[in-house]
């Protein structure tokens, strides 16, 4: 089936089997391998992308369901000139990643949170990221990073 949608601002036409997941279409048909696939059951959050601004599990959505939608993946997070998003900078500064497998999904979920709430408290950050599983960092650095990025985005200050 032909599907047409926008990914990170670029229009894409893909020919997929109806059973193809959005995660597989992004990774295998469009070469956007930043979206990771861990559990393929909607549990780990590694495949999280934004569809029309809402976070979705790309492993649980069929590519054909994205027809006409605007999809944002981790590849679309940095600026066009490669300048990292404050969240990406903060994950680096605050040691929010170790192996990095969960990181794209963490960043997309964190972006969704900061799109909705200007300065979420630490417990809100933990609550909102509770659907994303990390096997490495113990979460403290991730919460630190999201908190610092929120501060930077709200005030324009450099992250601590
Ligand atoms: S791969 Fe989609 S939630 Fe785990
Ligand atoms: S940094 Fe390794 S799974 Fe999160």
From TrEMBL:
InterPro entries, per database record: 2Fe-2S-bd, 2Fe-2S-bd_dom_sf, 2Fe-2S_ferredoxin-like_sf, 2Fe-2S_ferredoxin-type, 2Fe2S_fd_BS, Beta-grasp_dom_sf, Diverse_Oxidoreductases
Highest taxon listed in the record's lineage: Bacteria
Domain (2Fe-2S ferredoxin-type) ranges: 1-77
GO molecular function, one term: metal ion binding
SUPFAM superfamilies from the UniProt entry: 2Fe-2S ferredoxin-like, CO dehydrogenase ISP C-domain like
Statement: the UniProt record of this protein carries the keyword NAD: no
Keywords per UniProt: 2Fe-2S, Iron, Iron-sulfur, Metal-binding, Oxidoreductase
Pathway membership, UniProt: Alkaloid degradation; nicotine degradation
Alphabetized CDD domains for the sequence: fer2
Pfam family, one: Fer2
Stated name of the protein: (2Fe-2S)-binding protein
Record organism: Amycolatopsis mongoliensis
Upper taxonomic lineage: Bacteria, Bacillati, Actinomycetota, Actinomycetes, Pseudonocardiales
